[in-house]
Amino acid sequence: xxxxxxxxxxxxxxxxxxxxxxxxxxxxxxxxxxxxxxxxxxxxxxxxxxxxxxxxxxxxxxxxxxxxxxxxxxxxxxxxxxxxxxxxxxxxxxxxxxxxxxxxxxxxxxxxxxxxxxxxxxxxxxxxxxxxxxxxxxxxxxxxxxxxxxxxxxxxxxxxxxxxxxxxxxxxxxxxxxxxxxxxxxxxxxxxxxxxxxxxxxxxxxxxxxxxxxxxxxxxxxxxxxxxxxxxxxxxxxxxxxxxxxxxxxxxxxxxxxxxxxxxxxxxxxxxxxxxxxxxxxxxxxxxxxxxxxxxxxxxxxxxxxxxxxxxxxxxxxxxxxxxxxxxxxxxxxxxxxxxxxxxxxxxxxxxxxxxxxxxxxxxxxxxxxxxxxxxxxxxxxxxxxxxxxxxxxxxxxxxxxxxxxxxxxxxxxxxxxxxxxxxxxxxxxxxxxxxxxxxxxxxxxxxxxxxxxxxxxxxxxxxxxxxxxxxxxxxxxxxxxxxxxxxxxxxxxxxxxxxxxxxxxxxxxxxxxxxxxxxxxxxxxxxxxxxxxxxxxxxxxxxxxxxxxxxxxxxxxxxxxxxxxxxxxxxxxxxxxxxxxxxxxxxxxxxxxxxxxxxxxxxxxxxxxxxxxxxxxxxxxxxxxxxxxxxxxxxxxxxxxxxxxxxxxxxxxxxxxxxxxxxxxxxxxxxxxxxxxxxxxxxxxxxxxxxxxxxxxxxxxxxxxxxxxxxxxxx
Length: 716
Hints:
By secondary structure, this protein is α+β, with helices and mostly antiparallel strands. The chain contains 11 helices and 40 strands. It has a 6-stranded antiparallel sheet with strand order 33-34-35-36-37-38, sandwiched between helices. A hairpin with a 5-residue loop joins strand 5 and strand 6. Helix 8 (about 620-640) runs antiparallel to helix 10 (about 680-690) and helix 9 crosses helix 11. The longest helix has 19 residues, at about 620-640.
């Protein structure tokens, strides 16, 4: 993370000084608090609606964030972009850095996410009345121990706000015992087992219930506007949530406080007198209330008859952001607010953890340890700050890119990935040796629309060398002692000035830490949830490169930058991607071979894989759906996720896709979680709106033509 402290003032006259001011209001009149963060440079992180940001030296587009809260669980976050290109400052010179990765005790195996859930049927009824619907309740703060086959403690943790415990790598074929507490601070009991390699991604653990736990109390806690109490943002280091405690009528605590989960739900299992008079204490930051628990049914409280108690905090809602502006020392406006696309996404208004986090979300420490394991940093401080980091120049030198190229050829292409992240991408690649293939891409903001004039103007920023957001480096190389000393795929992100970044914001939904933000699309067969943030974790993720799919790109009309003129370069890029694959039969290899089956170096945009050819012959419409949806928004990411997710070989059906795409089911953790990128979600929605013939095809292959609301309450 960039610096958050300093002593700058509004009166400072240096050209890099930028005053940030935000205006916000609170519907209930609650006092507002402010936190500030930046991706580059430094900022005064003061509790004020205005502060001073010192931009970094050198060119590029940089981002500031403000997080506004009202002290009663309401939060709103806003991003602001300012370019330093016009300032004419020079990026600092850096001495070359070479680090040695630490010794890592790598072994064959995989990671898995344990999700702790309530074992009861929890049918929620809206507070305002209406039809009850089941919501799976995930349990936060469950104490967990993982024991190896000898009974020794292997790992200990507590479930997070999503009810999840992200385990470190487990040895292939070994069975581990799971012990968990039935409540925070409770004694641990057996909760099943897990065998590495037998779970594709997530194993749900239903907490056992003892006969004495006759009360099953559950519910939802939300704000007046439907938002949740609290906020999660690793970039700000914020993890706030409401808590609930079970009390006797005289105020005696009968069950310890439990945090309400990421989706606003809770469950308390407790032993109480059959006809006890009970209260639920709800705490949401400075807000508190004691609620009467519904009276016991005839015969008294029993675990077979769960009791619901939900609560809307009328005294709080999310603050409303009115405006945010940046000014230079002479008062001129700099930059603009970053406003994500709205109104077209298939789902409800998503929060920062809705996109690019399906496979996991890292934090500052796990990002730093990942970089340390690659030799990109020398060490990490107690907060996950990077010590002795390499620069982009160091990385270019290591892999033989210009200006350090030897005999290795370099290939390049420039385009807009309109259907993915809508960024202008200037891609470079080279192969230094049989075990060293590397790509890096410098990203610039994409066009608002898709007209040729807008595309040309956006791509002109690349040729002009302005508005560089970040350069993402990807390499397929050997790290000694890891992956049996065979090459594997690695990711690094660099700021416009060449400094190493721990996080990046790719689709306007908040900064996401490495490497999870890359694994979201590039896959990670041995990454589930988060890289461990302690010890010396292996940097092997089981990820891959994505093929270059011109059907999803927009190109400039400028000489040398048209699609036809870059066709050979894109073909060469795809051949380099294939060279990193384990075989010619992987999903990614098969896709690339299908594009170029004719022997031409021009990608065949009409390619239809055999499985979909057969589906089209059986039922017309399959080809249209493949080209308009699978081919435009799904196939490249899914190919990198492995054979079980290869939509070129698997014809989709509602049985396979509806929960993840349509939602509306009881499992709010996975409901409508795909597409995983906001832009992809928006583009699919736009195509359906523009072409009414697509709607019935979405119903046929995905189960719906528009995503369904979460049961009873929104989860985000």
